[in-house]
Amino acid sequence: MSVRRAAVAETTVERRQGTRESAKPARPRLGVVDRRRLLERARRRQARVLVSLSAGLLASALVVAAAAHAFLADEQLSSDALQSQVANALAHQQNLQLERAELSAPSRVLSIAERRFKMIAPGGVQYLAPVKPGETVEQAHAAADTRAASSASRASATGAHTSHHATSR
Fold first, then answer.
1. Which of 71, 104, 139, 148 could connect to 135 by a Cys-Cys bridge, CB 3.0–4.6 Å?
2. Where are the alpha helices (DSSP H) in 104-136?
């Protein structure tokens, strides 16, 4: 058993050392920096950023275009539904006008009058000649008041004239 324990102990120590070594960060490689390589890296980075921004902008434009298309399609459906309702309302209005014309037809009115109200159509129609209208009631009252006032003034003038003759005799 002791051999076994010793083997286990060695394995444990190796594991601990392995984790310690792997836990240490690797040292970066150092070298001379070439200016051309730096400029090329910067250009590549700029190109990647530009391509990424362009792709993002294009994707955004496509999403906006799809949303606008969906909105327009929805509005077109609404417009078509409203036009359908207007057409139905116009057809209904025309039907109602036709029904009104049928209900107010003179032949229908005469048949209802004869059946329901036991009315009889006249054998002939006699038209009266137009008469020149006279004065209205108000005009007649005003004229009567004027005549009465003028008669009263004449009577008082005649009475005063008569009494003047009576005193002079």
1. 139
2. 106-116
